[in-house]
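Dear support,

Our group has been running a series of protein-ligand predictions, and this particular one with cytidine-5'-monophosphate is the one our PI (initials K.S.) wants archived with full inputs and outputs. We had some confusion internally about which version of the output was final, so please treat the block below as the authoritative record. The input we submitted was:
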Amino acid sequence: MTIDGPSGSGKGTVAARVTQALGWHILDSGALYRLVGLAAQRAGVDLCDTTAVAETARTLTAKFVDGKIFLDGEDVSLAIRTETAGNNASKVAAIPEVRSALLDWQRNYARLPGLVADGRDMGTVVFPDAGVKIFLDASADERARRRYKQLKDKGIDVNLLGLIAEIEERDHRDRNRSVAPLVPAQDAQIIDSTQLDVDTVVDRVLQAVYEAYPEAGLKNGI
Ligand code: C5P
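Confirmed final output from the archive:
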């Protein structure tokens, strides 16, 4: 199943909760784009140099172990989560050759009993045949407020207006790029989480999964 949507829509949290409830595997595809951005930056590659960034994506040596992410052997789980890393990810993600370099990597994640794939183009490009496709949306203001709270809780001081501007800039780039833009798949179920809490969203997503895959529900006693 796939969960796509803009930054801050709650995809990551919902994907993790749904994965846990189902006992399935998870693919956080945004982490791959974040890794390419970080690897390019560390190698001194100019993010506008599309050929060099694409080469970075093709030769990426990242590993996902026990919920941690390693780049060239170093744990970069936190380093890829900064706002700068998110913005750099969105820049490298607009390069078609970067996207094609990561395609097989992502598809190789599909495995039994099932996969929850979270990103921007999971339902449209990477897994077009997925049995359940969710597009999780929320207003830009609400997404910025959630992100603001997350950062504040971590003790990081941020400016809310600056955050809204950054989120809008990233959205604009993600929605308007020429390849794999952020759009709901035609057969996606759209959930607007602006007024919903996480539990409600998780319940709706699980309901959609149980309808499409009754055996997943049986395992969970439903
Ligand atoms: O989801 P996350 O915020 O970690 O993604 C970071 C960036 O990576 C997004 O802003 C988007 O530009 C890019 N991305 C993408 N396709 C995906 C996942 C993420 O283009 N499937």
